[in-house]
Amino acid sequence: MAGDQFTQIANALFRDSRISFKAKGLFGYISTHWDDWQITIANLARHGREQVDAVTTGLEELEHNGFLLREREGNTDGTLGQALHLITDLPAPQQPQLRGRVGLSRIGSASVG
To answer: What's the pLDDT tens digit per position in 11-56?
Structure first.
């Protein structure tokens, strides 16, 4: 999605009435960065006017509706590793809902088919 000067996002995300303007704004901001851009929820809050709790609920809203996908990497010793968050403006029709609260480790964009 991200480019040097412009970002392209499918209109469906912005026209989706289930998504708040807060969540749409977060998605738009995140999508302007290149894949593997590393950020935390606290850093997102510092770049906007919303507090950490508002950023967290906006990201949870995107995840609940399939626009943010969360994967958890496993370490070689069997413990959980860092969380990887991917945004997509074309969510799968029946995206499985992942539960739990973790900080953002990495954000990238993905096309889900």
So the answer is: 999 999 999 999 999 999 998 887 777 778 888 999 999 999 999 9
Does residue 70 contact residue 98 with C-beta atoms inside 8 Å?
yes
Report the 10 Å Cβ neighbour count for 22: 17
Note the Cα 22 to chain centre separation in Å: 13
Q: Please list the alpha-helical segments (H only) found in the chain.
A: 11-15, 21-31, 41-46, 52-64
Closest CA to 97 of 70, 74, 72: 70
- CA distance linking residue 62 with residue 70, whole number of Å: 11
Bigger pLDDT: 22 vs 6 = 22
Cα 16–Cα 17–Cα 22 angle in degrees, nearest 5: 90
